[in-house]
Design a protein that fits this description.
The complex is a heterodimer of chains A (130) and B (612). With 130 residues, chain A is α/β, with parallel strands linked by helices. Chain A has five helices and seven strands; from the N terminus they run βββαβαβαβαβα. In chain A, strands 4-3-5-6-7 form a five-stranded parallel β-sheet, sandwiched between helices. In chain A, strands 1-2 form a two-stranded antiparallel ribbon. By secondary structure, chain B is an alpha+beta fold. In chain B, 42% of the residues lie in helices and 26% in strands. Chain B has 18 helices and 24 strands. The longest helix of chain B has 38 residues. Chain B starts with a helix and ends with a strand. The chains are: A alpha/beta (130), B alpha+beta (612).
């Protein structure tokens, strides 16, 4: 999938190796350029600053004290990057915390790669809408 | 018979010696003078004198006799003395008089009432003396009459006073209270039977003894104070103290002591009325003990307990209530609740006059199942359950209420902790399934043969179906069952993602609650049947869709998958299809049966909603 300046970049933030790998393979196969995967909030912020991805697929529980919502806050505030939240913590409280940072979608774990791709495509369409 | 003459003659004899100042006169002159003087004496002597015949008729009266009854002599003469006597006294007088006439007695004296002219009576003492002839025959009677009304009145007054005193004495004596009098030195002067009963001493034993014999050791010093007050003329009302009986036992009494005065008003002693209040004291002691027990009991209860009056003012609180509310409630002014501030469970303020206790009192009913949050003055909050209960008297009138506040913060913490653990567990399970899926995905991607890739993709699809069921299972609050409405679309959607992109699944009716046990087998069965229907039963994806439904009826569930193909023969296919063998095996596990029909091409699994 191509944007104006080459393939669209998707930042994958996921601390689980297998899931990150599968996501990377699926997204790449679907034509996206994958940034990362990042396994901590700090890594995510550094990669976002460096690679300026179009969006991020953000796991909420990460291998850092700062969680995915905290990372999403900084991505949104510092780089205006919005996230798709992929999490097994799909509850009202978590959604409420993420709400200020304009989530592009939710992927309740366990999800299939087909779901991942369709949510990402949906999110890009949302970003393109004026 | 010339009575006048005889009378004078009769009187002349005894009168002689009375006139010693005239013996020197000649005999005739002396006689004359003597008779004149007798006549004067007769008229003016201070005694009424009447002479009556044997029938009681008045023959002669002197002036005094006329004065006594207020009549002229002429009115009286010839009338019967008994007609002038009060009818009440006639019989007595007449009886005596008859004996006198008969010569049985010479003289008698009676007291009787005589009539005045105005109809009133007066008391007179009458002495009737016989005058007889030489042979002793009755001639007439001389009656001397004294007015004794003054003496009678005094006598009557004295009798009345004596009656009253007697009455008072019998009241004192019959009183249940001990009534004692003592002089100003504290010496017992009177002692009634009530005192005898109360203290065990007879009057004879205590009269003349000091009243302090009734005092138990250590209380003797009460007496000087009592005596001093009595000397000042004060009364002592219902003074509660203890006295000692003759047998040494102690008795609780209520004492009233009053000064006793003589005629001149001087205080000469004191009267004491002592009432046995042992029963009352005992009842008070018992009440105090029972109150003490109750209060110890309430203090020992580890929940906050307090009571209010009918108006809601706090009347009692236990130590746990102080700890609970973080403050000491003000008795008599705090209303409805011992707490500082109240909130509803949702955090909105709850005014005290609307708290469950206020509701219980205002509506006169027990309130249960309410929940509230108390805020202490230090800002900490405690969630609690109140148990307000109105209290009623025997007539059913509300006299107040009792409330118990049960702190449920620990329960709340435990619930939160449990939720956290469950969430964590769910998270781990979901994450693990995601990992499993990823593992199979990458294994399939790198498998060397098409056959291996096919098997791994099938396994991956089965894991995905289970993962979808898992999401439904742990996305809810109820931990024992789940809804067909959520389950069917979630699994169908996941299965569809792994099928050719344009294949369609129509998710039909889904009703009923399913037990957690059947979620995974059902998801796997659904995956196999849907995959099979799409693969073998559908040629034109654009026009043909696989239709699926999950319905419940009479405690049984039916999962039906229908396509537009030719269908299949169960017996012919089962040997070669590992997917179908999986379905049949899982159907057995669910105690269900699989029915397959060819037109329409349909596979239906019928199974019980709950395992029997």
């Amino acid at each position: 999938m191509e944007g104006k300046q080459g393939p669209l970049r998707v930042l994958v933030v996921e601390d689980d190796f297998l899931i990150a790998m599968q996501s990377e393979v699926a997204l790449t196969a679907a034509g996206f350029e994958v940034v990362g995967p990042a396994t901590t909030a700090e890594e995510a912020v550094a990669l976002a600053s460096e690679a300026q991805p179009t969006l991020a697929v953000m796991d909420i529980r990460l291998a850092s004290t700062r969680d995915g919502i905290d990372a999403a806050r900084q991505l949104y505030q510092d780089f205006a990057i919005r996230c798709i939240f992929a999490t097994a913590h799909d509850d009202v409280h978590t959604r409420g915390r993420a709400e200020p940072y304009a989530p592009l979608g939710w992927l309740p774990k366990p999800y299939t790669m087909a779901s991942l791709i369709s949510v990402v495509v949906e999110a890009l369409a949302q970003l393109r809408r004026p | 018979m010339n009575i006048q003459r005889r009378t004078a003659k009769t009187f002349s004899q005894p009168g002689r010696s009375a006139f010693l100042d005239v013996p020197h006169l000649p005999r005739d002159e002396w006689r004359q003078a003597h008779e004149d003087r007798l006549a004067v004496t007769y008229e003016h002597v201070g005694v009424g004198i009447i002479e009556i015949d044997e029938a009681g008729r008045m023959l002669r009266v002197n002036q005094k006799a006329c004065d006594l009854v207020g009549r002229e002599a002429a009115d009286l003469l010839g009338r019967s003395i008994f007609d002038e006597t009060s009818p009440q006294d006639v019989a007595q007088d007449l009886a005596q008089f008859r004996r006198q006439v008969a010569g049985e007695i010479d003289r008698y004296t009676i007291e009787k009432r005589l009539a005045r002219k105005d109809g009133s009576y007066f008391w007179a003492e009458v002495t009737s003396s016989s005058v007889c002839d030489a042979l002793g025959n009755f001639l007439y009677a001389v009656r001397a009459q004294h007015d004794i009304s003054a003496r009678k009145q005094a006598e009557q007054a004295r009798c009345a006073a004596e009656d009253r005193a007697q009455q008072l004495a019998s009241i004192v004596d019959s009183s249940d209270d001990a009534i004692i009098s003592k002089d100003l030195d504290g010496i017992i002067r009177t002692w009634n039977s009530g005192a005898e009963r109360l203290f065990g001493y007879t009057a004879a034993e205590v009269l003349g003894e000091p009243v302090t014999i009734l005092f138990p050791p250590g209380r003797e010093n009460e007496e000087p104070g009592i005596l001093a007050r009595i000397r000042r003329g004060e009364r002592i009302h219902h003074y509660e103290t203890v006295r000692r009986r003759k047998d040494g036992s102690l008795v609780d009494i209520s004492l009233t002591v009053s000064p006793v005065r003589d005629r001149a008003g001087g205080i000469v002693g004191a009267s004491k009325i002592a009432r046995d209040i042992t029963d009352r004291k005992q009842a008070e002691r018992k009440l105090r003990e029972s109150e003490q027990r109750l209060s110890e009991l309430l203090a020992a209860i580890p929940a906050a307990v307090y009571t209010t009056d009918a108006q809601g003012k706090i009347t009692y609180f236990n130590p746990a209530a102080v700890e609970f509310s973080g403050r000491t409630p003000a008795l008599g002014s705090d209303e409805w609740c011992v707490t500082w501030k109240l909130f509803n469970p949702d955090g909105t303020p709850l005014p005290h006059d609307q708290c469950p206790m206020a509701v219980a009192l205002k509506e006169g009913r027990v309130v249960r199942g309410a929940e509230a949050v108390a805020e202490r003055p230090d800002g900490t909050r405690v969630p609690f359950i109140p148990f307000p209960t109105p209290l009623r008297d025997t007539s059913g009138q509300i006299t107040g209420a009792i409330n118990m506040l049960v702190d449920i913060s620990e329960r709340r913490q435990a619930e939160t902790q449990q939720r956290l653990l469950l969430d964590e567990l769910n998270h781990r399970t979901k994450n693990n399934m995601q990992m499993l899926q990823s593992l199979l995905f990458s294994a399939a991607r790198t498998a060397p043969s098409e056959e291996a890739r096919k098997v791994l993709k099938e396994a991956s699809a089965r894991i995905a179906a289970m993962a979808a069921a898992q999401r439904v299972l742990y996305g809810r609050s109820d931990a024992t069952c789940f809804a067909a409405e959520e389950f069917l679309p979630a699994v169908c959607q996941t299965v569809r993602q792994l099928l050719p992109p344009d294949a369609r699944i129509e998710c039909g009716a889904a009703r009923g609650a399913l037990s957690n046990d059947i979620a995974m087998p059902l998801a796997l069965i659904l995956n196999e049947l849907l995959t099979n229907a799409v693969k073998h039963g559908t040629r034109d994806y654009a026009r043909q869709a696989v239709r699926v439904s999950l319905t419940s009826q009479d405690g049984r569930l039916a999962l039906c998958v229908e396509d537009d193909g030719e269908g299949f023969d169960l017996e012919a296919v089962r040997k070669n299809s590992s997917g179908l063998r999986l379905v049949l095996g899982l159907a057995r596990q669910l105690h269900g049966t699989l029915h397959v029909t060819k037109s329409p091409s349909r596979a239906c699994l019928d199974f019980p909603a709950a395992k029997s």
